[in-house]
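Researcher: Please translate sequence to structure tokens.
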Amino acid sequence: KDSLSLNQLEKMLKQLPSCIFLKDTEGRYVFSTQIWHHLDTEGDPNWTIRGKTDLEIRKDKENARKAMEADRRILETGEGTEDVIEENDDGIQDFLQLIKRPVYDEDGRISGIIALINNITDYQLLKMELEKRAKTDALTGLLNKSAAQDLIRMMMANYRKEGERCALLMIDADHFKDINDTFGHAEGDRVLAEVGRIIKNSCRAAD
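Model: Translation complete:
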């Protein structure tokens, strides 16, 4: 406090690739080392984040409200948070790792929140793709056997818990062996892919 000004600290932190920001106890930004494209800067070159709240500057007001509520809990409990949030703005999808911690003054009282934001979009998209591949049959695009069994068990348990009824359809492709034997496995694969397409197009998202 005696040797380093806030402006000097902000200037130093700007050298890091992560976005680091500081808020006061009212949820107003003291500084932010980067300005993300999902903030509403009004195209003003002299625009500053200082003194503004999330609700004032974020385009996604619902996410802004959630952020401010999370900040209030940190200020009340003194417990930090770590989350991955999804932002969709102007057709751009971002996944952001958000780490928040309370800041204490010399008397041990919470005086604000310091946070770190890392853009983990590439990592998150790769993770989602790998999870999809692990659960999906590459030929038909339907769930593979293991993932389908897990889903059926989960849905049956939920329906049983809620006292509701459901239906499970067992679908057979007649004479499929004849197609493989007569036209070869490559043609059989094309038939399976078409069957998968028909099934997907015949179901609702919740089915």
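Researcher: Any highlights?
Model: The mean pLDDT is 89.
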